[in-house]
């Protein structure tokens, strides 16, 4: 049976794109408290089903697919630029394909404006009408108002006119940053991107017998299987280790592992993989907020996903990417790394930041381990027990040394030099993530 929270989310998902909703309306429609409705609407906002705009309200927007996540809705634009909607409110749910800065003559502007774009311009009234007639929305910078004819046209065409007090350069920078951030988000693999869905997952019920499990296990040879109730709620997991030596007539509920470790579809693959290593498990059920099984992920799924992401071109550059781009292998000792301290790697005092240093150490250690042993590794703990000031522009050499390697753990020691001076010492413990 679905929870009230799930019912509200399904209700919101079923609304027409562009429809306005409110806490009171949802509470009345589904006979729930306003507090329950408010929490569900907030969750819908996290899932990008709705967008809340100050002085406008909450509207249903089209949920963007991963491949189109870099597109912004006009509703999101309003929030990014602290804007005010002057007209065309009914079009706020639409997505924009590009934005155009109107720093040109009207005749030249026609070549760049097309349907689905956003014209960023000041108080140029002719340009406003030109953009709307071409199927584009308008973002007026400098906090200016627009003429009534433009507002009327915007309402007729359902194309928003947004006014922002920021200047054109600032607005363009803010939108560019938002698209850039979404490109990074697009690159982050989530569990929902790699899971084996419920329809393809073999499951057992608590009243099934071990004999039935043995038959299934002989044909599939999987490492484990979720155990669910009739309503799909996960209650356990059963593996061949649980069933070995048990009577064929024994019930699954008697031998299964109760309250297994689970993961949510919105969790990153990297985080799920770390949990699997930490807990020493090969299979992890994926459940929703109500505990209903949505699918499973295996250690092999996670490993393949991590290897795939490393081979993908990066579209949005993160701080980690900036740090790693500075790293160069030392030719005579390829396990050693040199890097130059650039402004993005410094703290407020112009010295190498602790965050940049830890990123470098973890990546250099991973490289050293891969040169010795195939497979992925995940840092478990780190100790930096000596560090000196490293100023901007310094060239630093990192020398990793594997002290001990077992089947599951690797201990790596690091020395960092600037020219010939020792500037830092550290030790990192890694867990090996093998097939």
Automatic annotation (TrEMBL):
S-adenosyl-L-methionine keyword on record: no
Keywords from the named record: CBS domain
One Pfam family hit: DRTGG
Keyword Transmembrane helix in annotation: no
Domain (CBS): residue spans on this chain: 195-254, 256-314
Family annotation (SMART domains): CBS
InterPro entries per the UniProt record, alphabetical: CBS_dom, CBS_dom_sf, Diverse_CBS-Domain, DRTGG, HotDog_dom_sf, Ser_kin/Pase_Hpr-like_N_sf, Thioestr_dom, WH-like_DNA-bd_sf
PANTHER family, per database record: CBS DOMAIN-CONTAINING PROTEIN (PTHR43080:SF2), CBS DOMAIN-CONTAINING PROTEIN CBSX3, MITOCHONDRIAL (PTHR43080)
Record-given protein name: Thioesterase
